Amino acid sequence: MSGGRLVLPVVLSAIFVQLPDVTVTQLAASALQAGLGAGPGAVQLVLAGYTLTYECLLIPAARPGDRHGCRRLLVAGTVVFTAGSVPGAFAPTPRR
After folding, report:
1. In this structure, is the dihedral angle defined by the CA atoms of residues 51, 38, 91 and 95, taken in order, positive or negative?
2. CA angle, 31 as apex, 93 and 45 as ends, to 5°?
């Protein structure tokens, strides 16, 4: 396969990583609330903050992609997403 034919599978795999993350988190909201001892407001705030941040940064991220290259920005975004998800996976409580 040439490099141009790999673009769609790579982009779709990046989207696939993000969409289940939001979906699973929303489906597990009641279990998160019970397990972490958080109130319903705290769980909804975390879900809304995550989704809103992602969607608000999606359009402005196109400019650095044009400037620095889409491949470089995709790799950097994947690294930042992973680095942000790992501490969240090990959080013992909703508070710091």
Report:
1. positive
2. 60
Distance CA(1)–CA(4), nearest Å, equals: 8
Q: Which residue has the tokens 């609330």?
A: 33
Place of tokens 């013992």: 92
Q: Mind listing the pLDDT tens digit for each residue in 58-96?
A: 778 778 888 888 788 878 888 888 888 788 778 777 665
Beta-carbon contacts of residue 14 (< 8 Å; ≥ 6 apart)? 74, 77, 78
CB 26 within 8 A of CB 84: no
DSSP 92: S
Kindly tell me the sign of the dihedral angle through the C-alpha atoms of 46, 49, 55, 58: negative
Distance of CA 90 to the CA centre of its chain: 16
